[in-house]
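Chapter review: from sequence to fold.
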Amino acid sequence: MTTDTVVETNDKSLTMDTFMARVDAILEKSSAKIERDLALSNAEASARFQRDLAEASARFQRDLAISNAEASAKSDAEWKKWREEWDKGMQELKNSQAETDKIVKQNAKQLGGMGNSNGDFAQEFFFNALYDTKTVFGQVFDEVKTEKRKIKKTGVEVQYDIMLINGKSICIVEVKYKADTNDVARLIKIEKNFRGNFPEHVDKKLYLALASMSFDTYVEKACRDEGIAMIKQKGETIEIFDENLKTF
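The token string follows.
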């Protein structure tokens, strides 16, 4: 049904349908404008957001780079400081070790000197005591001496601390400040080579003795087992233990 109501305007009279059509057109145009403005506003807002995000990201990257550089510089400085302290500590350790080695060498030299002095003292003590008595194992010996000889066949130089000699027998005495079982073994080795090294004594009886300022139980047992006499210090003189003495 057609609406016949007339609307008065400044220009001319319009029917209601025409008026409403115009209103709809205006509204549609306004809505389109609003949508365009809204879309533009959204685009601007999105673009602004993207710019702000990009700027924030750039600031973050710059700050991160600065932070990393500072951290790296700090780390390098700390590493350099640690390395310097390490090198200093190692140098101090080397200096300390060098000083320790020096002291050890000095002590070893002193101990070696003391060992030589002790050995010289023992040698002199037992030589003088045996020279004074010249009687051991119930025998009187004519000669008491220290023997050193270079063997022609081998070119090896042998030395016996003390030799006691008479017309029938020879006694070889090994002298030590502190006796060791190795000294017993050395005497056994001397016995095996003696007649070959000293052919002029090949027909004589051979006795072995170990003289020392100090014996332990192991050395004493080794001497008894091998038939070697023990000569010990007793005050200003000597005491001889020959209960298991063997003739070689």
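Two observations follow directly from the output. The chain has three helices and ten strands. The chain has two domains: 14-119, 134-241.
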